[in-house]
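Researcher: Here's a chain I'd like modeled. Treat it as a single chain, no partners, no ligands.
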Amino acid sequence: MKVLLVKMSSLGDIVHTLPAVDDAVRHGVRFDWVVEENYRAVPALAAGVDRVVEVAFRRWRTAPFAYRAELRAFRQRLRKRRYDLVLDAQGLLKSAAVACWTHAGQRVGFDAASSRERAATLAYDRRIAVSPNWHAIDRTRRLFADALGYVRPEGDAVFDLSCRGRNLGARADRAVVLAHGTTWSTKHWPEVFWTTLAQLVTAHGFVPVLPWTNGERGRAERIANAAPGARIWPRTDLDGVIRLLADASGVVGVDSGLAHLGGALGRPTVMLFGPSDPSRTGGRGPFVRNLAASLPCSPCGSRRCRLGRELGTRYEARGSGPPCLEAVAPARAWAALTELMDRHRRGRVA
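Model: Modeled as a single isolated chain. Structure tokens:
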């Protein structure tokens, strides 16, 4: 069966889709995958993905009239191929529009109670009910199984990023990647905690490595300056970040795409959770540990900390973090990572 998969963003959501792709490939399904251009490196590594179809909605929406020709060309590329089925695993109006632009025998997606935007379901021939309370990986695996007609999987999630002849993770160096960036202000771990963690990493003979993107360079420099031996990773594309993560000894990150990707690549990974719920979006994998505070208000799922406002604090301005993430100490994160790295060296899966 030839399927067009529509899962365009974000990086963490794309990583969460990989186990469902692995399930389907084991049942003889082959995919073309529609993804935002900046994220193409991940599906390009996935087994069972024959073709990555790049889309650029994030860029196009900044100047829709200027990019009309690109959008038209994208639609024409979709219509050149015929698919047995198009599977919208995103559940948004824009992903439903992509599904409608194809010549596919059938369009399938979440039902109205399960979709992120209910109106998107009007584009589908079949609608699949999946509990919104499940983990994102389990939701997607159930969607694929019901849409593609195989028994719902119950085994552990498998992230197969080993194909295309790439020798990822062949050598583990002494780097510990500190994935400090996130788009939510409420997901930020206090900067002083990152500094303390970087100092712990160097004290134990490892090298803290700090990737960065827009608006994050200053924080990376301050952390590196306080931890002699730390390295600021040169700004690079996702391919370069994948190589960095795949060869690292370990990863510590907030709830972000880079941390999820580290776990998917099989690296010892500690993820730090505050407002987001690890039972719904936590990292998965044999060497992944999710750490969260036990505050009564956490997880709140909010981009603004109501408790912080009540206390009169402005954690964004003072380089701190929301109270829920302040409750996850650097020593706890380092202890969790060292235990994972030890198990990884011994080849022991929990």
